[in-house]
Amino acid sequence: MILTFIVTYIAVAVLYYNNIISSYAVEASLYAGLLNLINLFAAYFLFKKSIGQSSNKFVVFNLGGIGLRMIFLLISIALIIKFLKIDKYAFILVFFLIYFILLSLEVGYIIVNKKVIKNQTD
Fold first, then answer.
1. What is the pLDDT of residue 50?
2. Cβ–Cβ < 8 Å for 93, 82
3. Helices (H), 51-87
């Protein structure tokens, strides 16, 4: 995951230094990446916290966590677009690209750990 971010932002730096993208687009991509990292760490924390809990608590932590994370993301996106002087279209594009990549990694992480989840509910 971290390697993905490093490679992505090296590519962004190369594009910026070759005058292909503006500093506003670089700043927008940094905010989008940071926001997605916060979301990913929250998902990981909630998943780890739910391991070993009852089935009801597991569902509350994970599904309830998804709802809280979505509300957090929507509010954060609105505030960033409203108050920061960034390239809004670049922010939205980069945010959703990173979001869907990290979402697939999150689902993959849960699938890999399904034995742990199954053992807790038995």
1. 86
2. no
3. 55-59, 65-83
Is 91 in contact with 27 (CB distance < 8 Å)? Answer: no
What distance in Å separates the CA atoms of residue 70 and residue 77, rounded to the nearest whole number? 10
Residues 6+ apart with CB under 8 A from 28: 86, 87, 88, 90, 91, 94
Whether 118 has a pLDDT exceeding 60, the answer reads: yes
Q: For the chain, where are the alpha helices, taking DSSP H only?
A: 2-17, 23-50, 55-59, 65-83, 88-112, 114-121
Q: Are 88 and 28 in contact (CB under 8 A)?
A: yes
Query: Percent of the chain at pLDDT above 70?
Result: 94
Task: Give the model confidence (pLDDT) of 31-67 as tens digits.
Answer: 999 999 999 999 999 988 888 888 888 888 888 899 9
pTM of the model: 0.83
Show the tokens assigned to 52.
């070993």
- The residue among 53, 59, 37, 57 whose CA lies nearest residue 105 is 37
